[in-house]
Amino acid sequence: xxxxxxxxxxxxxxxxxxxxxxxxxxxxxxxxxxxxxxxxxxxxxxxxxxxxxxxxxxxxxxxxxxxxxxxxxxxxxxxxxxxxxxxxxxxxxxxxxxxxxxxxxxxxxxxxxxxxxxxxxxxxxxxxxxxxxxxxxxxxxxxxxxxxxxxxxxxxxxxxxxxxxxxxxxxxxxxxxxxxxxxxxxxxxxxxxxxxxxxxxxxxxxxxxxxxxxxxxxxxxxxxxxxxxxxxxxxxxxxxxxxxxxxxxxxxxxx
Length: 255
Ligand code: PGA
What we know:
single chain; about 15% strand; globular; 8-stranded parallel barrel; alpha/beta; binds 2-phosphoglycolic acid
């Protein structure tokens, strides 16, 4: 299956930015700029912005995602949000296992896997983030790290469920640092991820999975990154908060 048959997806990851009012304003700026996109366009926003974001994007081609979810349906998990809560208000996607959750909030491959399974069971589409630390790249164990994350994070995810999974390759050293992986580095690891998926499932299933690159992707480097055959889209942090920059990346993915 060639790249043209996979769904290109550009997703903004707003992180802890924008109040509900600011979210509405930014989405109103983004909507007309991406209205003719030939790729899927998503904004993943803070929990409290979700309702406003869904209202602001109703009837448009911009879909809304959350930035995390818990695996339990309900219960004594103070501060957490369930998949059912997200589904009920119309959320479609959810970012899981972002390196900031792994680094600062004790997220492990085991909990990423639990969240991924729960999201899929609820009909949400998880964007599962994997990526190596700079130290791991320097020690030449990028492939071991990625293979382990892919295997553990997708443990017990069926081939049918895999169709609703998006993988985001985000080298941790490139996130928010302005230091982008070269297009060759991004392609190399995205191709490696696809090969791992082919091993765990089969080639056809692997060929159908959208694999994004993330880490300082912006309007200036998107074209080159997205020209690579295994880079099917982007998970965009900083540049997703500026309407024109985000729209330029969407345009690059629409070619
Ligand atoms: P960045 O963030 O584009 O600001 O590097 C990407 C991400 O964390 O998803």
